[in-house]
Amino acid sequence: MPADTPIADFDRHAEIKQALSDVEHEPGAKKPDPILVADNVVRRFGGLTAVDVDHVEVQRGAITALIGPNGAGKTTFFNLLTGFDRPDTGSWHFNDKSVSGVPAYKVARRGMVRTFQLTKVLSRLTVIENMRLGATEQRGEQLVSCMIPGLWRTQEKANTERADALLERFKLDAKREDFAGSLSGGQRKLLEMARALMVDPELVMLDEPMAGVNPALKQSLLGHVKSLRGDGKTVLFVEHDMDMVRDISDWVVVMAQGRIIAEGPPTAIMGDQRVIDAYLGAHHDAPMTQEEEERQLAEVAEAIEAELGEPGTTSEETSS
Amino acid sequence: MDVIESALRQGLGADAIIFALAAIGLNVHFGYTGLLNFGQAGFMAMAGYGLAATVSTFGLPFFVGILVGLGATVVFALLLGVPTLRLRADYLAIVTIAAAEIVRLTVGSVTLKDWFGGRDGLQAFTGTFRDLNPFSERTGFGWLTYRAYDAWVILVGWGLVVLRCLIVWALMRSPWGRVLKSIREDEDAVRSLGKNVYGYKMQSLIIGGLIGSLAGFMTALRQAATNPDDYFTEVTFFAYTVLILGGAARVLGPVVGSILFWFLINLLGGFFTWATRGDDPLMPTWLMTSNQASLVRFIIMGLALMLLMIYRPQGILGDRKELALDAR
Ligand SMILES: Nc1ncnc2c1ncn2[C@@H]1O[C@H](COP(=O)(O)OP(=O)(O)O)[C@@H](O)[C@H]1O
Ligand SMILES: [Mg+2]
After folding, report:
1. Quick check: B27 and B171 in contact, CB under 8 A?
2. Which ligand has the shortest distance to the CA of A116?
3. By alpha-carbon position, which residue is closest to atom 4 of ligand 1?
């Protein structure tokens, strides 16, 4: 897809590949230029330890995939890092500044913006209003100055232009004036990602951006994620779609039962026995074929669906 | 004809104003921000009693009383908001309904009788307001006339309603209003975009409360007295009825709802009173007696509201398409 990938990305991609080439393929490996560093992050729900991460670093400017079986603790880890949940212990630094214990909205302002596995669009606002909300430091969002349109019109216009450009890039421009609640699941994912970009973050954290997106859109979404790297942004994303992980990530971090069990470039990870065991179950020892992989992924998708249906149940049994 | 005239007079009268103001406040809370405030009567009581006690108990000027009333409302909003706005939405509902009752029982208590007058309430605080009245006799248009003092209350009241509507309109079309509406839809999404949700909810609670406080002032002024019973929890529920009837998250929803509500309830009351009056009433006595007339209007009104919720759940001014999205 060269058309979708700007030249800038090719340069960056090569640079990042080079930078990561000396990094050990071990859990908790040191990176040459980490944007995010987390230490001893533990989160327990009653007797269940959902997250237990000793050390992890995310390389600046790279696309890092966080993979792992359903229930591995990926979403919980995202919630902790972005201030939506509090850990039992742990600390983490973004751009060398501590962000542990910082409220979610301040984390976002520092430049670390996430999307949600269960999409959160603002149903009864139009698509363009969803986008405008994402812009930061709006004068019109302050109680007194909002009453005087003259003080915020210009800024609003600039934000709208930026929003329109993003909507076009994400092929949502035709839906501009529709209520976000009328969008399909895949379109909601796109809108949420575009809206997160309105914040102009340094680190974009995407929780299953491909879930529910139709195959045609998937290709262009892949292009968008790559172009983020071209823009100099760092991407950390959770994904079940192995093709996507293989295709776009520079680095892969594998979680299972709350712990990070492997790290490495995608090619190395796909063949790692620990990963195959954890991800597909220990009984699975034959090499992965395309059909097999798809069947397994379908099972994972089913398990997600089942979990969504019954939020009380955990999927520990299926993954251990 | 008398029945309709009288119902119209009520539909544009002090009750309609008070509930329009209370519901405009709730519209900011519930309609735009999604905050479940079930204690609007408490906000009204803070204002009404703040004014009355300042003037009649402590002998301070009328406008100091207004400031005390507004200040008390803000303090009340902070007391309710600080502990609950970080929690799930239902906590605010529980705390506000209880707090409003605490306020009502406190101002009606025997212990504080010297300050708030206990069950008898407070009087003699409207002197300045009366002196400002430009009308000296019955005033109005054609047959729609009110006594001089009532006309003054109504003039000031509708002035306040118009002003509040303009303010709400200006707020809600701005980016600030967009943040409130977004919080109503999904507050975690708003947080993830770097907005201080807690701060916005607090601002909403205070602004809606201040609009509600005007309803409290009007309640005290229109009868030149305050009484704990004016601030029953029912008042809050009537205000919600008015809001839903007119259409939530619409600037004019509460106003249309309030006028219609008071017009209809008085029309029904007037009609049934007329139909059961005299020795040979229109309505057979086995069906309804004159004693039951004022109760039946609430039954009919309730029925009408049920039908409205079934066939027009978005209220008079609401947008059905928008409401349907709620289901997600
Ligand atoms: N709020 C919660 N209360 C109790 N258990 C939870 C909660 N959130 C997540 N869990 C449990 O923590 C584990 C990790 O979940 P999650 O982070 O959603 O996994 P993933 O995103 O990797 O699929 C699961 O076993 C899940 O059931
Ligand atoms: Mg998850």
Report:
1. no
2. 2
3. A45
Within an 8 Å CB–CB cutoff, is residue B171 touching chain A? yes
Distances (CA, A) of B311 to A186, B245, B315, B321: 33, 12, 9, 13
A100 neighbors A91 (Cβ within 8 angstroms): yes
Residue B301 has pLDDT above 60, yes or no: yes
pLDDT (0 to 100) of residue A319: 39
> What ipTM, to 2 d.p.?
0.88
Q: Measuring from each residue's beta carbon to the nearest atom of ligand 1, which residues come in under 6 Å? A: A 45, 48, 50, 68, 70-76, 314, 316
B49, part of any domain: yes
Residue A307 has pLDDT above 80, yes or no: no
Q: How far is B184 from chain A (nearest CA, A)?
A: 9
pLDDT single digits (tens) B317-328 = 887 777 767 544
In 3-state terms chain A splits into helix, strand, coil percentages (rounded to 5) of 45, 20, 35
More confident residue, A111 or B327: A111
Question: Which residue's structure tokens are 């909003």?
Answer: B77
- Tokens standing for B239? 């205000």
Q: A292: pLDDT confidence band, cut at 50, 70 and 90?
A: low
Provide mean pLDDT across the span B141-155: 90
Give CA–CA dist B30/B237, Å, rounded: 13
**Would B202 be classed as within a structural domain?**
yes
What does the pLDDT average to over B86-105? 91
Contacts of B197 in chain A (CB under 8 A): 105
Ligand 1 centroid – CA A314 distance (Å): 7
Name the domain count of chain B. Answer: 1
Helix (H, G, I), strand (E, B) or coil at A116: coil
Cβ within 8 Å, pair B194-A181: no
Chain A 67-86, CB below 8 Å of chain B: which residues? 82, 84
- Rounded to the nearest angstrom, the minimum Cα separation between A243 and chain B is 28
Nearest CB to A125: which of B181, B197, B328? Answer: B181
Residue ranges, CATH 3.40.50.300, chain A: 6-121+183-280
- A112-169 per-position pLDDT tens digit: 999 999 999 999 999 999 999 999 999 999 998 999 999 999 999 999 999 999 999 8
Whether residues A143 and B326 touch (CB distance < 8 A) is answered with no
Q: What is the mean pLDDT of residues B283-293?
A: 77
Tell whether B127 is covered by a domain: yes
* CA A246/CA A252 separation, integer angstroms: 9
Q: Could you list the residue range(s) of the whole structural domain that residue B218 is in?
A: 2-323
Tell me the average pLDDT of chain A.
Answer: 86
pTM passes above 0.95: no
CB contact burial A117-128 (16+ within 10 A = b; e otherwise): bebbbbbbbbbb
- Model pLDDT for residues A259-290, shown as the tens digit of each residue: 999 999 998 888 777 777 776 664 444 445 66
Domain CATH code at residue B100: 1.10.3470
The phi and psi torsions of B121 (rounded to 5 degrees) equal 70, -165
B296-323: burial string, b at 16+ Cβ within 10 Å, e else: bbeeebeeeeeeeeeeeebbbbbeeeeb
- As a whole number of angstroms, the distance between CA B105 and CA B228 comes to 7
CATH superfamily of A6-121+183-280: P-loop containing nucleotide triphosphate hydrolases (3.40.50.300)
pLDDT at B327: 45
User: Taking 60 as the threshold, does the pLDDT of residue A313 lie above it?
Assistant: no
Q: What per-residue confidence (pLDDT) applies to A112?
A: 96
Does residue A136 belong to the interface with chain B, where contact is any CB pair within 8 Å?
yes
